[in-house]
Design a protein that fits this description.
With 625 residues, the protein is mainly alpha-helical. The protein is built from 25 helices and seven strands. The longest helix has 30 residues, at 2-31.
Length: 625
């Protein structure tokens, strides 16, 4: 029988492999046709040739064919996911000669600081108060024989998104083993279906397509997200509850005392019945089956991983603690001590490791707690500014994110009515939203919430393509169609600011020239934050930014007065093309304001031009005679 099934599957497997290679070949040819010279405020999407969509279309057809097999081939599915990672996250690094984002250069500068000085200094800035990631990357850079993280940082999105697949797969797999709907060998008649496996792979496929946030560059948050997922996977594997309750006793009592909440009590009873009917004998990964030594090992592993993230990032450990707290509250994790341990570890680091930064900013932290409206507005309304096309990009990101959450909710509803709802994954998808009440996180808290919830939202999105017992050709066709539509959506949302966020080599050359011209200590001044400096000499200079109104009004006198009284040696002003683009995208300057500013600086007797290329000009501030 196995031989017959193998022969039946062979044509589909052959076609899928051919489509995989055809997809990668078409993609590689497409890369040669991409030019970054004509980008507008919609970003990279305007430079992508039609052939790149054909490449992804071939990949999606091959993926669907593998899913349609009676027994999907796991290594081949993984190969399709890796190819998807390269197309989605590798296109930009392949066509760009330098790395993106000014913050990326700054983070690389901290890594360089750790390598050069062999230490970190909490008095410099917030990053030095959470130095774990930079110490690790400094070790990696030296161990691999690189002079700087600049040499490999460009490929961080590809590497880290492949890494994400492993803990996410483990989370989905362990959850599937709890549910009768997803057994290893569910048989209807004579046909082996392996439904659970198909949904896991569809979820992983969709997770990559909706992960537009762009926090996967060489950064603390990108790599701590991997630790976050790994901690959740370890806890689910080693310390999950055998027969969990849906709603705590105290909450159920409150519901009974308020009749208008009876609908939630009814839902909780139904989900409780689903939980109690599920199998737990398919795996040894329940806490009842672990020996005391194995249980202790789980505690140690989680504590070590969490200590690494407490030492490396401000937000991730807080989110991790909140999510684990909800898992404990709803009886999904057996050990109730973990949220307490996590909270103590966070407070210990704030009290000792990051004491100087936390003490100086405690008022800011406290003021933001509970300010949900202000935090939300800083993340949504505060970003819809600038040029018309840029506003379209920002609005599209909002609509895209809301659409993902909406259709994930429909997937939850479908799972509920088919008696296959996973409360564990509902918590993992919903609990991160609680951090919105803590702070705006510099206008990025909604981005981080989307990132933390995205794998589990993808799981519920996958439900929409499955019937009650199988995935049909209608579902597979719909998956193909949605995948093809999601590719341009992903590119527009992720790379909508590419015209501003990508720095051609000439701008990097200008910064190198600046470091050659300016002897430390010196004051280095730019018109705004869109400049790729500090990747070396992180703390050897004083880095300054002019106020926006000075630039908009060509108020050179106020700018000079502010910068000439700075401590240090000489002062240098750098004006670059990317800084100009940022004013076009973000600031509503009057027509000609930027050109007038450049002309005013060039004609001023207070500035002497010392360097110029096609992307940047450097001026030295001349002392007043």
């Amino acid at each position: 029988m196995n031989l017959i099934n193998h022969i039946k599957q062979r044509p589909k497997v052959t076609i899928s492999v051919v489509l995989l290679f055809l997809s990668l070949l078409t993609w590689s040819i497409s890369l040669q046709q991409i030019s970054l010279q004509g980008l507008n405020d919609l970003g990279l999407i305007v430079a992508l040739p039609l052939s790149i969509y054909f490449a992804f279309s071939f990949l999606a057809v091959g993926f669907v064919l593998i899913l349609s097999l009676e027994k999907p081939i796991i290594p081949l599915l993984m190969a399709f996911l890796v190819a998807e990672v390269f197309i989605l996250f590798g296109t930009a690094p392949m066509v760009q000669e330098t790395i993106r984002l000014p913050i990326q250069y700054k983070l690389i500068g901290i890594i360089d600081y750790v390598i050069v000085n062999g230490k970190f200094d909490p008095s410099i800035d917030a990053f030095h108060n959470w130095p774990g990631f930079f110490i690790l990357m400094g070790f990696v850079t030296e161990a691999l024989g690189f002079e700087s993280a600049l040499e490999y940082a460009k490929w961080s999105p590809v590497f880290i998104n492949i890494l994400y697949l492993f803990p996410v797969y483990l989370l989905f797999r362990n959850n599937a083993l709890r549910d009768n709907f997803y057994t290893f060998n569910e048989v209807e008649g004579n046909k082996e279906t392996n439904i659970w496996s198909r949904r896991i792979w569809v979820s992983l496929w969709l997770f990559l397509l909706i992960n537009w946030i762009g926090q996967d560059y060489l950064s603390p948050q990108g790599y701590n997200f991997f630790i976050y997922l790994t901690i959740l996977a370890v806890l689910q594997t080693g310390l999950k509850e055998r027969r969990p309750s849906f709603i705590p006793k105290e909450v159920r009592g409150f519901i009974r005392r308020n009749r208008w909440l009876n609908v939630f009590e009814s839902m909780s009873r139904r989900i409780q019945r689903m939980d109690s009917s599920r199998r737990f004998d398919l795996t040894n990964a329940t806490s009842e089956n672990l020996t005391p030594f194995q249980t202790s090992a789980v505690y140690v592993i989680v504590c070590v991983l969490f200590a690494a993230t407490v030492f490396s990032h401000q937000l991730t450990p807080v989110t991790n603690t909140i999510v684990v707290g909800f898992l404990v509250l709803f009886g999904r994790i057996r050990s109730r001590i973990f949220p307490l341990i996590m909270g103590v570890m966070i407070l210990a680091w704030l009290s000792f490791g990051a004491e100087r930064y936390f003490a100086g900013n405690i008022d800011t932290f406290v003021a933001a707690i509970g300010s949900v409206d202000d935090n939300f507005d800083a993340n949504v309304g505060g970003r819809i500014v600038g040029s018309l096309l840029h506003q379209i990009v920002v609005r599209f990101r909002v609509y895209f994110s809301v659409a993902v959450w909406f259709f994930a909710f429909l997937g939850m509803a479908k799972d509920y009515f088919y008696d296959r709802l996973s409360l564990h994954l509902i918590i993992l998808a919903g609990a991160p939203f609680a951090v919105i009440a803590l702070q705006s996180y510099g206008g990025e808290i909604m981005l981080r919430v989307f990132m933390f919830a995205s794998p589990f939202m993808a799981y519920f999105l996958a439900s929409l393509f499955f019937s009650k017992k199988r995935i049909t050709w209608i579902g597979l066709t719909a998956l193909y169609g949605i995948s093809v539509l999601l590719l341009p959506s992903f590119m527009l949302a992720r790379h909508g600011n590419e015209r501003m966020e990508y720095f051609p080599q000439a701008e990097i050359d200008a910064i190198d020239a600046l470091y050659e011209i300016a002897s430390p200590p010196a004051n280095l001044v730019s018109t705004n934050i869109m400049i790729p400096w500090r990747y070396r000499h992180y703390n050897d200079y004083k880095y300054l930014t002019l106020r926006s109104r000075w630039v908009a009004n060509s108020d050179i006198d106020s700018a000079v007065e502010a910068i000439e009284h700075q401590d240090g040696g000489s002062t240098y002003l750098i004006i670059s093309r990317n800084q100009e683009i940022m004013t076009e995208l973000y600031f509503n300057y009057e027509a000609g304001a930027w050109d007038n500013f450049e002309l005013t600086v060039a004609s001023s007797d207070r500035f002497d031009k010392v360097f110029e290329n096609e992307r940047a000009v450097i001026y030295e501030l001349v002392p007043e005679s």
